Amino acid sequence: MGTALNALIERGAALMCWADPFFPDPVIPEHVKKATLEAIDVGMGSHYTMPIGNGELKKEIAKKLKEYNKMEVDPDRNIIITPGSDSGLLFAMMPFICPGDEVMVHEPSYPSNFLNPKLLGGVTIPVPLRAENNYQIDIEEFEKRLTPRTKMVLLTNPNNPTTTVFRRECLEKLAKFVVDNDLILVVDQAFEDSVFDDIEFVSAATLPGMWERTVSVFSISKGMSLSGYRVGYVVADDKIMDVMYGCAVNILGATNTASQMGAIAAISDRSFVKEYNKIFDKRRKVAYEVFNSIPGVSMAMPESSFLSWVNISKLGTSAEISKYIIEHANVVVNEGTPYGASGEGYLRVVHGCYKDDNVLYDALARIKKALTKLAEEKGVQ
Amino acid sequence: MGTALNALIERGAALMCWADPFFPDPVIPEHVKKATLEAIDVGMGSHYTMPIGNGELKKEIAKKLKEYNKMEVDPDRNIIITPGSDSGLLFAMMPFICPGDEVMVHEPSYPSNFLNPKLLGGVTIPVPLRAENNYQIDIEEFEKRLTPRTKMVLLTNPNNPTTTVFRRECLEKLAKFVVDNDLILVVDQAFEDSVFDDIEFVSAATLPGMWERTVSVFSISKGMSLSGYRVGYVVADDKIMDVMYGCAVNILGATNTASQMGAIAAISDRSFVKEYNKIFDKRRKVAYEVFNSIPGVSMAMPESSFLSWVNISKLGTSAEISKYIIEHANVVVNEGTPYGASGEGYLRVVHGCYKDDNVLYDALARIKKALTKLAEEKGVQ
């Protein structure tokens, strides 16, 4: 933790700024805990796996990809285990981006998406998603930013912070755009486990012509709440993987051995994810009700995950209101601006924190009280 | 494991090709095991730490740096925890290398060192170390390869595969070369824990003018035999760290939480490293005796770690002899060629594998028998 954050924790602030489910409470499922502990206990946890990952884990992932993502892959050829999906995401982009190459990044989006192209010498081209359009893809916004240097589209699906699940018709248009212009798609599906209201979740790699030009990035950090395990995986075509296998040790090293054993247990029995989703489903409805009952504050019903994307623009800027909430409600939330220019006037509130619903509801009530008072003071109705 | 390697394991081959101490046997020290298990057991192991790493671990590292490396650093400013030292090594180079920049890499060296500059768009300039010079640095070899594009020297100290501990006088010359030509030094000290015969180990960052232009990369994988934990750390000046802190999450993500708790225990009580070094010390002497008793085969006494760098050039090429050893001794060793052009005619044999000395000695005896027969057949004396 940073020093400022530590000071806030010491004064008992509620942290709703960390996309780490149930943080800081213990929630490791028993079967996952058992597999992890055993790997340490029998001693194999201190030895490397191959940098490309544990073979048994890759087999379990291939089964899950088939069941959940409708992707049929060869576990020995199309999967690399990564030490979390952050390094996996940059790794997925590395083979393609040469200096000056342009990467289209929808905004709002995960903050790392804006910096990643630049870290590789590329250029980030933000492409707006609009609240009026439920933050779905407007393909014309992509088309009008196409240049001879466009190389890649970077997609976060479901989106963070907006929780948008990109619909099939949007993804089909995006896929056609990618294929027609000979681009690469890197898609971060870290939040795919928690999609509500029976919205169809479509893995972009399954769309026509996309398998051979898509690198899909996955994580067990979010829906499975195993962020401290640091296990992610990257899935791609043989040709792309030939390059990635050749530099996996240089860029990633190997992934934690005991965590990979825990991940085998987690992915082979994912029933606990359903239980978590019931909790997140209940909480999103509470958050929706609370925030929309505050004068001048609004949010759409989250489509996925455990995030609230809250419009507070009638009360002040992101910086002003997040500071106000720390001071008057003792809760830490995220300013909207790191998620893109259109994040000004928004807050990201992680309603997935804490195991006990009541801790969360208390924090939401404090925010409501503080912002209601502020709205009154400002005469916002 | 790769498929070919799996087949060899199934037929009971001894693996002396993995720089993973005591692999595949269990050796986690009790205090380290306890700390790791507890992190999982109380549930915090499933939550992220900050991408820059656990603050308590950084404090313990700072103490160790002062004691062992004679480096005084601010744990909150000069240390980033990395998910192993492989990703740490590339991360250490990233802020400095622009397309076309030249990176001087001594050879023999760790294989990743030759690819890393290219992955960043740079150019690898191999600089020979000579067996006749005990693989110490010959500064003239660096000087004559200096160009206006030279940006960095990449050093592995102690060296892998030669086990060379670079002597103070060599490092002083190298430091002067780096300072005089306004270069950056990235030094990988993954093998620093195991140095024999009271050879002085000098951390390059402590030499005059070097702190502000050195990035030092460390690991708990080798001397501490905690490779599967995936914990390394990078140490540098404030100015360099300002850049690294700004992109740590993008490039590295966070490091495994439970492993960091284990690493706190390991680094705060390093007595087990002394015990390991006694084992490695004994084994290097056995390996030295065995290999030098084979006609046409020779090796120098290892100065560090648990590696034998064996000259088999009178019997054949690296590829031929490693293949012969698999077939006739059922032992897998490393060909010398990935370590640099001068590695032809050499093998790297990991004598740190297996907990039971006798398993290792049996494997060495099989190699001796096979190569002695080969030498006879070839008439090599």
From TrEMBL, chains A, B:
Give the top-rank taxon of the lineage listed in the UniProt record for this protein: Bacteria
UniProt KW Transcription regulation keyword: no
Q: Which InterPro entries match?
A: Aminotransferase_I/II_large, AspAT/PAT-like, NHTrfase_class1_PyrdxlP-BS, PyrdxlP-dep_Trfase, PyrdxlP-dep_Trfase_major, PyrdxlP-dep_Trfase_small
A single GO molecular function term of this UniProt record: pyridoxal phosphate binding
Which Pfam families does UniProt cross-reference here?
Aminotran_1_2 (PF00155)
Q: Which GO terms describe its biological process?
A: amino acid metabolic process
Keyword RNA-binding among UniProt keywords: no
Ranges for domain Aminotransferase class I/classII large:
28-359
Q: What is its EC number?
A: 2.6.1.-
Annotated protein name in UniProt: Aminotransferase
- Upper lineage: Bacteria, Bacillati, Bacillota, Clostridia, Eubacteriales
